[in-house]
Specification:
Helix content is 34%, strand content 25%. The strands form two sheets. It has a four-stranded mixed β-sheet with strand order 1-8-7-6. A four-stranded mixed β-sheet has the order 2-3-4-5.
């Protein structure tokens, strides 16, 4: 008998840090670099608006004449992120991420940000699942 596929809530980062849409891009990028975050949910008035990735910050920084000290998160973030519920199955989330070629999904419950699941979390999940189910 096979074991059920776990929900995303088992592997997601709970209570994730986030940035505000109108926050300084320089401050957000510096914070991400300092803390080692690759993806941060972007909120505006408590609602999920998008995701800011370190790639977004790097691309804007590389633009000629770009001065990120004068820019806001909304100048660089990716709007309309993929949002899933905590009880979404891990395999479904991984299929979404692979099909959309995205590095993270945001987890929302009752209109509130409760987590983020990144490709690194997916690798941790795969490692655990392979070791617990393939023996």
């Amino acid at each position: 008998m096979s074991k059920p596929i776990p929900h995303i809530e088992k592997y997601m980062t709970t209570n994730p840090k986030f940035v505000e849409k109108d926050q300084s891009l320089y401050e957000a990028g510096t914070y991400m670099q300092k803390e080692g975050f690759r993806h941060l949910p972007v909120l505006y008035q408590g609602k999920i608006e998008g995701v800011l990735s370190m790639t977004d910050v790097t691309l804007v920084t590389a633009m000629k004449d770009a001065d990120i000290s004068k820019m806001k998160v909304y100048d660089a973030f990716t709007p309309n992120p993929r949002i899933v519920k905590p009880d979404t199955l891990v395999d479904e989330v991984c299929r979404i991420m692979a099909a959309d070629k995205i590095g993270s999904v945001v987890v929302e419950d009752n209109g509130h940000l409760v987590g983020i699941f990144t490709w690194i979390d997916a690798l941790h999940a795969m490692d655990e699942l392979l070791h617990t189910r393939m023996k």
